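Supplementary Methods. Inverse-folding protocol.

Structures were first reduced to a discrete structure-token string of length 330. This string, shown here, constituted the complete conditioning input.
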């Protein structure tokens, strides 16, 4: 009798142990093998721009780390909202990501109706890096410093014009911050991309522009443009001889572009950690650094929390500027 009881108790324990193991295994099959299919990185811009290029280089490096293909898919429109909305509504399994930029932090302030809540719809993965805009003029213009431009703007209120690659872009708001901090009145002229703005500035239709380093680098090299100052708090690695706006007469001025990866909200932490590790190795590689050096990009490659903190701070400061300057979406 005693022998029978002991044997039954052992059998019951073995059964419960096995059942528990099966249940535990069944609770995590979706993530234990991540990734188990190709990953998509959505670029909310048209092909060919800086964001598209960075996404493709990151995708190539991450694919090697994760052992699965990574497809870059362009979904432009509505100031990045169309592509971002697609990712926000995708399954939260880590297989669909979006490369976010400055617009991610600004859209909530500029767009009265959003199809998602930016601060709740996404899970941060990694801050890839940050890059400056540069204030440039045509080489034959008389302006050689920030002080020259401020003096001309004060002497001719509302007469000087500055271009950007679009309303609400980092270049546009860099100009609005310049106006606010310098207490000057200049007119913003938005374009649908950097190319048309550059054409008009070289043609004399606008006085200056805030542009990405990569967009104007060829014209700085061939002497058709003059770089006045960069918008970041520190000098740009690609333009070490060019001062910052802050050190050129507007202390405290700082504006920058940035690139970050997000997954849909609810993506499991273990999957986020795997994506972060793969992206970190990708952007710290020599291949990545070489391909983005003309962008003036300063690589960050930190934790998901770094991206979250950074973008929350950016959202607060640019929301204040949008409201103060009464900036509206197109």
């Amino acid at each position: 009798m005693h022998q029978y009881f002991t044997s039954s108790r052992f059998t019951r324990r073995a059964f419960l142990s096995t059942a528990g193991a099966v249940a535990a295994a069944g609770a995590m099959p979706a993530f234990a093998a991540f990734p188990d299919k190709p990953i998509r990185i959505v670029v909310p811009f048209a092909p060919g721009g800086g964001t598209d290029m960075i996404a493709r280089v990151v995708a190539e490096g991450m694919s090697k780390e994760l052992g699965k293909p990574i497809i870059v898919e362009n979904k432009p429109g509505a100031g990045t909202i169309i592509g971002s909305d697609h990712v926000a509504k995708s399954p939260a399994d880590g297989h669909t990501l979006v490369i976010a930029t400055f617009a991610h932090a600004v859209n909530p302030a500029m767009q009265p109706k959003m199809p998602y809540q930016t601060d709740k719809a996404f899970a941060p993965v990694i801050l890839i890096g940050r890059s400056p805009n540069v204030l440039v003029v045509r080489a034959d213009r008389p302006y050689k410093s920030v002080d020259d431009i401020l003096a001309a703007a004060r002497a001719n209120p509302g007469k000087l014009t500055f271009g950007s690659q679009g309303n609400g872009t980092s270049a546009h708001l860099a100009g609005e911050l310049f106006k606010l901090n310098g207490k000057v009145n200049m007119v913003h002229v938005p374009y649908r991309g950097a190319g048309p703005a550059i054409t008009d500035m070289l043609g004399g239709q606008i006085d200056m522009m805030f542009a990405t380093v990569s967009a104007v680098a060829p014209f700085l090299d061939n002497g058709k443009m003059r770089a006045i100052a960069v918008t970041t708090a520190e000098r740009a690695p690609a333009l070490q001889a060019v001062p910052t706006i802050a050190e050129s007469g507007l202390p405290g001025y700082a504006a920058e572009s940035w690139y970050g990866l997000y997954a849909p909200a609810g993506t499991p932490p273990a999957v986020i950690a795997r994506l972060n590790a793969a992206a970190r190795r990708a952007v710290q590689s020599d291949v990545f650094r070489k391909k983005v050096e003309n962008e003036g990009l300063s690589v960050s490659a930190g934790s998901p929390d770094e991206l979250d903190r950074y973008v929350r701070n950016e959202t607060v400061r640019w929301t204040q500027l949008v409201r103060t300057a009464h900036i509206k979406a197109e």
